[in-house]
Design brief:
Order of helices and strands: EHHEHHEEEHHHHEE
Number of strands: 7
Largest sheet: 3 strands, antiparallel
Strand order of the largest sheet: 2-4-3
Radius of gyration: 17 Å
CATH architecture of the largest domain: Orthogonal Bundle
Helix content: 40-55%
Shape: globular
CATH superfamily of the largest domain: Winged helix-like DNA-binding domain superfamily/Winged helix DNA-binding domain
């Protein structure tokens, strides 16, 4: 993996990175995966099993891990294994300080207000409103704020100008 550089062109892409390196369990998963291919089961032998699925989803959303099927021994089923994709980082963007403060707040905060806003956004999505611009107007926040929330929540993501709900098996 030497020389693989994660180039971040959109400041919203910082959210999964900051979340990963601000959480002890997530950081440990990333460190283990940067050394070798590992399955979820192998990771659970070294880290709290509850945090691994969420961590892997966040790492996938940030394009920080790759996955492949491990060839099984005769009579066994194939198992997904994961490995960290990058070992270097480069930022290639410019944003205003308000957007940066929103990104940092979303990435690092455990504020209950964020959870409430996510629930309200999910209600709006269930009603058919998925446009980032429409949601940002409805909640009187910047579109970057809505995108950042989608990057933080494991089962939501940004696709084009809208939000999408992800399958749990992503």
């Amino acid at each position: 993996m030497p020389g693989h550089i994660r180039i971040v062109n959109d400041p919203v892409e910082l959210v999964p990175l900051l979340m990963t390196f601000n959480d002890t369990s997530f950081k440990k998963v990333y460190e283990l995966l940067s050394k070798s291919w590992m399955t979820e089961e192998e990771l659970t032998t070294q880290i709290d099993a509850d945090s691994i699925p969420v961590c892997l989803q966040i790492l996938k959303k940030g394009n920080l891990v790759e996955e492949q099927w491990r060839m099984p021994k005769r009579g066994q089923k194939p198992i997904k294994e994961y490995r960290a994709t990058y070992n270097k980082f480069r930022a290639n963007f410019q944003c205003n300080l308000q957007d940066l403060s929103d990104i940092l707040y979303i990435s690092l905060s455990n504020d209950e207000n964020l959870r409430a806003m996510v629930e309200q956004i999910e209600e709006q999505m269930a009603g058919g409103m998925t446009s980032i611009n429409d949601l940002s107007r409805k909640f009187a926040v910047n579109p970057v704020f809505i995108k950042g929330l989608a990057k933080r929540i494991p089962h939501l993501d940004v696709k084009g100008q809208g939000l999408v709900r992800l399958d749990s098996g992503r």
